[in-house]
Amino acid sequence: MHSMEKYYTWEANKKVEIRKSTDLDEIAHLTVPHIFKEAAHKYGNKPALVFMDNGQQKKVTFVEYYHQVRTVAKAFLKLGLQRYHSVCILSSNSAPWIYSNLAAIMAGGISCGIYSSNSPEACLHCLRISDANIVIVENENQLQKILKVQNQAPKLKIIVQIRETPRHDSVLSWKELIEIGSNESDETLNEIIETLQPNECSTLLFTSGTTGLPKAVMLSHDNLIFKAKLTEITLQMKNNNRRVLLYLPLSHVASQVFDLYKGLVAGVCIYIADDRALKDTIIDNLRTARPTEFLAVPRIWEKIKEYIDVYIRTSSLSINEKNYNISDDHLRNRLYDDQLCSKIKEMIGLNECKLFKSGAAPISPDVKSFFLRFDIPLAEVFGMTETSGSFISPAGLTPELLIHGCGKPAPTMKVKIHQPNENNIGELCVFGRQIFMGYLKNPKSTKAAFDDEGYFRTGDLARCNHDSVYTITGRIKELLITSGGENVSPALIELEVKNELPIVSHAVVVGDRKKYLSLLITLKTNRNSETGLPTNELSSDLKYWYKYLGCDYQHVSEILQHRPTEVYQAIQEGISRVNAKAISSAQRIQKFTILPRDFSTMTGELGPTSKLLRNVIYEKYGSEIDRMYTN
C-alpha cells in the first residue's frame, strides 16, 4: 500500500487513519453516539429542538431528543438495517429527519440525505450507491419517486412516510416506526454502539453533480465531531442561550456541521424553519428564532439586503438618500448610528446575533460592505463537502480584508497552492483531520482527489497574499478558455455584474473556445406565493430602479418584446463599468442576452444552495448562447 492510501478508502466498511497536523489534533477521537450521550447528560432539560407541529410550537429537550433517537435506532435494527448499509432520507428539514439521521448512525448504519428536489432517477442513484436498507420519505409526493424505482434498489427493505397516512400497505407511518422502536429492548443497540469507531463512515453527502452523477462523500464520525468541536474552540462563545436557525437542507454539509453537530457539541438550540424559508419566509423565521449565530448563502443575504433596501426607502427613517447611497471607498464602510443599526437588526431578527457567516458560493464585496455599515460584519467562509465544511474563515481580519479577502486556514489545516501561475494563482490543496474518507464505490475519483503527500486537491483556484490571507478566484472546472488561449474565471466577473446592476438576479459568463465573452442575464422577479417559482412580473422591490430610468413596463416579457432603450443602455453601462476593471481585453464582456425567466432549483438551473449549475444552463440556453456568436 502507498503510504498515503491509509488516509482514504472507497469502501463503506473500511477504516482510515485519522490525519494529524497540529497540536489541536489532540482533540479526543469520539463517535457520534458518544458525543450525543454526553450532550443529553450535560444539557439535560435545555431545549434542543424547536419547531412547529400542527400549528403549535413544540420544544424538545436534549434528554427527550436522545431517547427519541434511540427509539428510532431500535426500530431501524428491528426492520433489518445492516452494518454499513444506509438509511436514505428524502424530505425537507424536520425533526424526524434529524432523528433518522442520528438513529442510522447510532444503529451502525450510514445516514444518507437525499435532496427533496431530486428526480426518481437521481434518488435511485443514491439508493444503490449507499446500499439503502431503509428510506424515509416526507409525503406521498416523495414516496412516488421511490415507488417508481424501488425494484431497481435490491437492498431496500422498508419505506417509512413521515407526513400524512400512507396509502400503501407496504409503507410504514412515522407513528408505526416509533411504536416498533418503543417495544424493543436496548441490549442490541447498546452492543452496536460499543463497536462503533471514530474513523468509520457515519454519513454520506452528495456533491452537486454539475459535471456528472453526484459523488457520495464519506464523512467519518471524527470528521463531523472534530469539525464541530474545532469551531467551538475557535469561536469561544460564552452565551448559555445560543440558538441557530436550521433552514439550509440537511443534505448539505453546512447544515450538518453548523447546525446539527454544533447543537450536540455546544448545547445550541436548533430552531427548524418552515419549508418556505429559502423561498420567501426567511425574515419571519429569523424573527421567531432570533439566532445568536447565523449562516446564509449569498442569495439569502441578497434577499435580506433587498428587504432592508425597501424598508429604508419606504419608511420615515432619518436617513437621506445621499448618505444611504454612499459609494466613496473611504466612506462606504462607515457605520450608521447605533439607533438605526439596532432598528434594522431587530426588524430582520438578527438583534441577538453575534456571528454572521456567508458560505457555499462567492458573495459580492458590495453586499458585505452594505451589511458592515449596519454593524453586521459578514464572515465569508470557504469549504466543501469533502472538507467537512469550512476550513478558511476571516476571523480576526480588518474590515477591509473582511470585505475583499476570504480568510485564513483553520489552525489544524495545512494549505498549499499547487503550481501557481505568474499571478500566484493555483490549485488550493489541503491536509487535515476534517478531510473526508473518500468517494464511496469510486476508487478512480478517490485516488485522483489526493496528491502524493496526502493533500486533498480541492479543484479551486486561489491566491495567498503576504499576510497569509487566501482568496478563492474560481473553480478549475469552471474556467473558460477563449479561442485566444486566455484562461477566464467567470465567477468574479459575474459578481461584478451583480454589484453594478441591482436588477440582475443571476449572471452567467460564457465564451469557452470563443473569440470573446458574452453574458446571460436574468432579471429579478417576484415569486409565486404557492410554488415559489419565479414569475414574469418584475421585482416589486426594484420598481424604483425602473421608475428612475423612465421605464413603465411591469413584466420581463415586455422588456424582451419592446427592448426599452433606457433599460438596455443602463445594463450596457453597468457592463462597461465591469469591463473597465478587467485585467485584460479577453476578460471583457462583448454581448449580453436577457433570459425570459429567472433561475430556480425547481427549474434546474440552481443547486440546493442556489449555486449555478453551469452545464444545465449551457444546455438549456444553448440557442441563446449561439445567437450571441452568430449575429
Automatic annotation (TrEMBL):
PANTHER family: AMP-DEPENDENT SYNTHETASE_LIGASE DOMAIN-CONTAINING PROTEIN, LONG-CHAIN-FATTY-ACID--COA LIGASE
InterPro entries xref list: AMP-binding_CS (IPR020845), AMP-dep_synth/lig_dom (IPR000873), ANL_N_sf (IPR042099)
GO CC annotation terms, alphabetical: endoplasmic reticulum; membrane
PROSITE patterns tied to this protein: AMP_BINDING
Keyword Lipid metabolism applies: yes
Domain of life: Eukaryota
Alphabetical list of Pfam families matching this protein: AMP-binding (PF00501), AMP-binding_C_3 (PF23562)
Enzyme Commission number(s) of this protein: 6.2.1.3
Gene Ontology MF terms: long-chain fatty acid-CoA ligase activity
Species this chain originates from: Parthenolecanium corni
Domain AMP-dependent synthetase/ligase positions: 36-440
Taxonomic classification: Eukaryota, Metazoa, Ecdysozoa, Arthropoda, Hexapoda
Protein name (database record): long-chain-fatty-acid--CoA ligase
